[in-house]
């Protein structure tokens, strides 16, 4: 604990998007105006996105108090009350972190990580530092055992021993495939080559997924340390981090972290006085989803079009510039220092038989607590959706959870008891993927969701192999006609045949998994497809072509807003009289709904 | 628009000895002049002795490259899953109707370019748009009207 009070503002992308920088400035102003001597600093995402902007205040000898959803107007008052009068504003206070003296008046304040329902079931290994350290200051990482694992590895262990430790920990790739990390390292270690590389896949392209971004923004050194350890184990002296350009903050913090690590000689030549040298470079992506596929990613680093190639040879034997390459994702590398420091036994004690450790999930969609959560493998989906994420918003009814992004699938309510691990999710037709979990309520149309994901993969298809390029296009055409109310009786069969054929024959993971959202919704929600095709109905009220707008005569007060706003003059009615919409003329743009203050207009199926 | 070739040459020099850096080179030029005009691509091709076809193959493969000039303000609408289930398609429609252009296009007066993006990772704020790098979350039609300079005052007053 420092002698000065410390104020920490959460400045990850979500914090900044919610107005974190303005809050930071407001605090600075309040401190100057009141002549308060305090350390004002920043941190990455602590995971509770729903409560952004988050500000933590700690006085020496007292627990750290976390305030959520703070506003620019009130933050000055919160800070001065806390620092000058020891008064905690209960309107914003979420909980306390750590021990220390605090007035008995606040005994009931919950402990942030153990009492708040969002954190209660979490186990934070990868996110151990996120929300605690200032990611732009290497000293704060070092203080929390940073680079100790690297030191231990290169000064006390042989490369084979490191590989053995990783293997025995049971760590599997967190990027989607779930391949054993230790095996991958072993292949690269055993591969013959005068030069080898370590590459980190930080091209997190799945929509609705921001695990890797949060780790890079909140704790870049943990990933770099993991890469350096991999470098030592496989015999590489150079590494690349391929990060998508849509994450400018992550890229900046990585570059900053690399410079700082070089200064301290945690990277560079003769690390810790040994003859092990390791250098890192950041490569920015240029906007191509397929570059998340490993061979495409390597192409892109080489300055070529990011198109996958057939495997084998696998990157472990022939990777970047044709050299043996060890390629893992952000979260996998962030786990490595933990495995080394805690020991593989401790790591393997968390999780299930086949899936060890934890997994970070980005929880989004129609839930009460959007955020980033790290849970032990083997926890059930139900616990994640209800206990961690707080259930469906507005007490709505759960319909499905989409796991694994465009490559994953939709899991229905009766499978919520499934434990989260690689194998049971794959069995259900979904996949662990990178860790996006999008929860959907009753008002989500599963046909529309399938169409959404397929349109995504279709656009992102690189075009190299025919099944993906042409097949996904045909599937998308079928889905588009179904949501437009023009579905044909044999469309369901056609979708299944096409989907299975693409899965079996596409060149890379993107193509092979592209049909998953369609195949799983067909498996669990076929009746919705049938309603669209045969009854021309969309019960969720999403597919506009199957709906019409209706003005409720009871609620309409004849104000005329909708009539004036209608771009095609489909609404008629005299002033102060009930208005009507002409279904034939209406283009279903929905402007009238937005304009109506009486909430008299709604979509009907 | 007049291209500042001196700046372009500076960027070319920066990557002169780095053969793998063609993408980074094009990215830096894009950041500087905000798109890749044909004359620049040809100039780069001559300078680094890489065929024009190869540069175009990269510029058309990666979505962050633009071959047309961009508008003064850039609007990006997030179409990620979380935003999608919270009504992003409707918000996109509101924006494109308001500006009377399709995603990927620029308004006739060169003021706005509208694009869709896959996910900016600020899912708690969806539906969301990014205007000139600043995030605007929990969008409604009214917010969009305000952001893009229009107003519903006319309708308000006539009631």
CATH architecture classification name of the largest domain in chain B = 3-Layer(aba) Sandwich
Q: If you consult CATH, what is the topology of the largest domain in chain A?
A: Rossmann fold
User: Helix content range of the residues of chain B, please?
Assistant: 40-55%
Count of the separate structural domains of chain B: 2
CATH class of the largest domain in chain A: Alpha Beta
**Looking at the structure, what is the overall shape of chain A?**
globular
The appropriate CATH architecture of the largest domain in chain A is: 3-Layer(aba) Sandwich
Biggest sheet descriptor of chain B? 4 strands, mixed
| Net shape of chain B | elongated
CATH class of the largest domain in chain B: Alpha Beta
Mean pLDDT of chain A equals 94
Question: Helices, strands, pairings?
Answer:
The complex is a heterodimer of chains A (605) and B (159).
Chain A: E1 6-10, H1 13-17, H2 20-33, E2 39-43, E3 55-58, E4 64-67, H3 72-85, E5 93-97, H4 112-115, H5 117-120, H6 138-143, H7 148-156, H8 159-169, H9 181-190, E6 197-202, H10 211-218, H11 220-234, E7 238-243, H12 248-263, E8 279-284, H13 294-301, E9 325-329, H14 330-342, H15 344-348, E10 358-365, E11 371-376, H16 381-388, E12 398-403, E13 409-412, H17 422-427, E14 436-441, H18 446-460, H19 466-483, H20 491-505, H21 509-513, H22 516-535, E15 548-551, H23 561-565, E16 571-572, E17 580-581, H24 591-595, E18 601-604
Parallel strand pairs in A: 1-2, 6-7, 6-9, 7-8, 10-14
Antiparallel strand pairs in A: 1-3, 3-4, 4-5, 10-11, 12-13, 12-14, 15-18, 16-17
Helix pairs in contact in A: 2-3, 7-11, 7-14, 8-9, 8-11, 10-11, 10-12, 11-14, 18-19, 18-22, 19-20, 20-22
Chain B: H1 5-14, H2 22-33, H3 38-48, H4 52-61, E1 73-78, H5 81-85, H6 88-99, E2 112-117, E3 129-131, E4 134-136, H7 141-147, H8 153-158
């Amino acid at each position: 604990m420092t002698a000065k009070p410390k104020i920490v503002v959460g400045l990850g992308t979500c914090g900044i998007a919610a107005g974190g920088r303005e809050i930071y400035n407001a605090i600075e102003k309040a401190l100057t105006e009141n002549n308060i001597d305090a350390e004002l600093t920043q941190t990455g995402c602590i995971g509770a996105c729903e409560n952004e902007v988050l500000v933590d205040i700690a006085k020496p000898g007292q627990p750290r108090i976390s305030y959520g959803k703070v506003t620019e107007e009130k933050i000055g008052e919160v800070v001065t009350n806390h620092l000058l009068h020891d008064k905690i504003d209960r309107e914003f206070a979420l909980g306390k972190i750590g021990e220390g003296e605090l007035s008995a008046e606040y005994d009931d304040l919950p402990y942030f990580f153990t009492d708040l329902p969002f954190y209660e079931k979490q186990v934070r290994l990868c996110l151990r530092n996120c929300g605690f350290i200032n990611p732009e200051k290497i000293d704060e990482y070092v203080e929390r055992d940073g680079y100790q694992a690297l030191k231990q590895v290169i000064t006390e262990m042989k490369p084979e021993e490191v590989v053995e430790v990783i293997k025995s920990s049971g760590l599997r790739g967190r990027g989607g495939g779930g391949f054993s990390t230790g095996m991958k390292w072993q292949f690269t270690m055993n591969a013959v080559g005068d030069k080898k590389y370590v590459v980190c896949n930080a091209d997190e392209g799945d929509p609705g997924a921001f695990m890797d971004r949060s780790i890079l923004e909140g704790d870049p050194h943990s990933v770099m340390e993991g890469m350096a350890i991999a470098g030592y184990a496989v015999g590489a002296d150079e590494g690349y981090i391929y990060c998508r350009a849509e994450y400018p903050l992550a890229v900046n913090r990585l570059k900053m972290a690399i410079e700082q690590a070089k200064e301290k000689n945690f990277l560079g030549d003769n690390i810790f006085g040994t003859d092990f040298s390791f250098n890192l470079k950041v490569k920015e992506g240029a906007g191509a989803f397929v570059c998340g596929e490993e061979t495409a990613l390597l192409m892109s680093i080489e300055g070529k079009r990011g198109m996958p190639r057939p495997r084998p040879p696998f990157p472990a034997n022939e990777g970047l510039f044709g050299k043996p390459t060890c390629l893992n994702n952000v979260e996998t590398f962030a786990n490595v220092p933990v495995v080394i420091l805690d020991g593989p036994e401790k790591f393997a004690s968390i999780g299930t038989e086949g899936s060890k450790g934890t997994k970070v999930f980005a929880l989004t969609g129609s839930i009460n607590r959007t955020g980033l959560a790290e849970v032990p493998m083997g926890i059930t989906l139900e616990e994640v959706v209800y206990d961690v994420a707080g259930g469906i918003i507005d007490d709505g009814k759960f319909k499905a959870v989409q796991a694994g992004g465009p490559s994953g699938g939709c899991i229905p309510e009766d499978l919520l008891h499934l434990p989260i691990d690689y194998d049971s999710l794959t069995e259900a037709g979904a996949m662990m993927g990178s860790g996006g979990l999008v929860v959907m309520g009753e008002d989500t149309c599963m046909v529309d969701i399938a169409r959404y994901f397929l349109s995504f993969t279709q656009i992102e298809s690189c075009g190299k192999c025919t099944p993906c390029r042409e097949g996904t296009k045909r599937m998308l055409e079928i889905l588009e006609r179904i949501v437009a109310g023009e579905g044909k009786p044999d469309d369901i069969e056609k979708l299944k045949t096409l989907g299975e054929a693409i899965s079996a024959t596409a060149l890379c993971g993107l193509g092979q998994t592209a049909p998953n959202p369609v195949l799983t919704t067909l498996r669990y929600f076929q009746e919705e497809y049938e309603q669209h095709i045969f009854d021309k109905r969309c019960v969720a009220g999403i597919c506009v072509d199957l709906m019409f707008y209706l003005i409720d005569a009871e609620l309409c007060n004849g104000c005329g807003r909708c009539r004036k706003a209608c771009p095609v003059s489909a609404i008629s009615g005299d002033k102060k009289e009930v208005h009507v919409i002409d279904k034939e003329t209406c283009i279903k743009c929905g402007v009238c709904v937005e304009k109506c203050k009486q909430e008299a207009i709604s979509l009907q199926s | 628009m007049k291209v500042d070739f001196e700046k372009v040459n500076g960027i070319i020099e920066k990557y002169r000895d780095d053969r793998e850096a063609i993408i980074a080179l094009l990215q830096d030029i894009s950041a500087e002049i905000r798109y890749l005009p044909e004359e620049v691509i040809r100039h780069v091709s001559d300078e680094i002795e890489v065929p024009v076809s190869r540069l175009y193959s990269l510029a058309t493969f990666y979505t962050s490259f633009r071959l047309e000039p961009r508008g003064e303000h850039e609007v990006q609408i997030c179409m990620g899953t979380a935003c999608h289930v919270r009504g992003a398609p409707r918000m996109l429609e509101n924006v494109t109707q308001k500006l009377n252009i399709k995603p990927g296009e620029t308004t006739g007066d060169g003021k706005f370019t509208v694009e869709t993006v896959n996910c900016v990772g600020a899912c708690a704020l969806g539906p969301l748009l990014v205007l000139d790098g600043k995030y605007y979350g929990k969008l409604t039609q009214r917010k969009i009207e305000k952001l893009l300079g229009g107003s519903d005052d006319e309708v308000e007053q006539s009631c």
